[in-house]
Amino acid sequence: MLALLKFMRDFDWAGAEAEFKLALELSPSAADIYDHYGWLCGALGRHDEAVALIQRAQELDPMAHRADIASALLRAGRNAEAVEAGTRCIEFEPGYARGHATLGWAYFLSGLRDEGIRQLEQAAALSPEASTWLAQLGQAMALVGRTEAARGALRQLEALSRERYVSPYHFAYVHTGLGEPDTALLRKMNLAP
Predict the structure, then answer these.
(1) pLDDT tens profile 83-95
(2) 49: number of CA atoms within 13 Å, CB side?
(3) Selection from 78, 76, 70, 6 nearest residue 35 by Cα
(4) Residue ranges with strand state E in 61-115
(5) Separation in Å, CA 55 to CA 64, 83, 97, 155
(6) What would you measure as the largest C-alpha separation in the chain, in angstroms?
(7) What predicted TM-score, i.e. pTM, was given to this entire model?
(8) 154, 145 in Cβ contact below 8 A?
(9) Dihedral sign of CA atoms 157, 42, 87, 113 in order
(10) Which residues have C-beta within 8 Å of that of residue 7, sequence separation ≥ 6?
(11) How many CB atoms lie within 10 A of CB 133?
């Protein structure tokens, strides 16, 4: 827990890494430690290490870390492998929205944009309460030039935000896809009108 706090709250990456290493010495079969240490390595651009750590986490506890390997492979630019990992993930659990979203981005970044959008649509349909998937779908729509669909996602996010909290990051995803970096930044900072 101390490693995660140093990593995600304090941005003390050296301190977090020392704590992750100590935690692995004390609990060498704890999947969560490998997974979270992999997140740190990925954030630091050490993608090969991240993939290896997250693969170990998945070996130790496949259910708890089922989409993280596909995500790590995406961040490493290993899109074809991410498609394979994402496919295995949703074959194992077809109703897992994050698995569909991750597979969607793997397809999208591999150039199979229509299939990527279909998977993102599936993620949004499986988990309509999760504004993350709607936002990512809106971003993908914008990136392929389906501007009205992307603006529709923004309208849906606005409507949701009147009922409950919607992260400013989710609006920023869509604005980024639309090529509106200033609005995205203002949204991210929660300063946009």
Answers:
(1) 999 999 999 899 9
(2) 12
(3) 70
(4) none
(5) 12, 15, 21, 38
(6) 53
(7) 0.88
(8) no
(9) positive
(10) 13, 16, 36, 39, 40, 43
(11) 24
